[in-house]
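Please predict the structure of the following assembly.
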Amino acid sequence: DAGVIQSPRHEVTEMGQEVTLRCKPISGHDYLFWYRQTMMRGLELLIYFNNNVPIDDSGMPEDRFSAKMPNASFSTLKIQPSEPRDSAVYFCASSTGTGNEKLFFGSGTQLSVL
Amino acid sequence: KQEVTQIPAALSVPEGENLVLNCSFTDSAIYNLQWFRQDPGKGLTSLLLIQSSQREQTSGRLNASLDKSSGRSTLYIAASQPGDSATYLCALQMDSSYKLIFGSGTRLLVRP
C-alpha cells in the first residue's frame, strides 16, 4: 500500500483565497483524521471521521474551516477565506480497529498564507 | 485537562550510546500511549503503542515502558545510530475515541 497520500505537498496563497487540501487514506481504514502542526501549538486534532461520517469537529478553529469525506477513499479540508495565522503543516492520518491501533500519517501539506 | 510534557526538548549524543526519552502526563486515566518519530519535512511514524493494561512494548532496539500511577512513559533506544536522528513525540489517547493528545517532542541528534 502507498500509505496515506496528501496533496499538495506545498501550498502558497494570498490572504483571502480559498485553499483545499486533499487526502487519500489507506484502503480499508475506517477512521480519518486531520491534524495541524505549528511551532507554537504543536499537533492539534481538527476533525475526524468514521466510515465517512464526521464524529468530532470540536478542534476546527473557525467557520472558515470545513472538511468533507464524500467516500471512503477521499477527504478534503477547505479554508475559506484563508488568513496568515492559518499557516501550518496540515496532516491527514488514518487508522482502523477498536481504538488500540496505530495511526498512519501522510507526509503533510505545508501551507503558507501571505 | 490532560497535559503531556517531554523533557528534554533536544538531546545530542554520540553514536552507540543507549538513551532514554521521557514523557510525563498529569491524568493517569489513559486508554493507551503511542510513541511517534517525525523526520524533518515528513509525517509521523508510529513506533510503539502501549495499551493501558500493558507495562511495556519492544520493537528491535526500541523499548517503551508505561507507569500510569506515576504518569510517566519512557522510550529506550539501544545502541543509537545516526539514522535515529529525528523528533520523537509521545501521544496519549484518553478513551476509545481516537483523539490523541501530543507532547511537544524531543529532538534527537545522534552524532557519528
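Chain B touches chain A through 24 residues (CB under 8 Å). The two ends of chain B are 41 Å apart (CA to CA).
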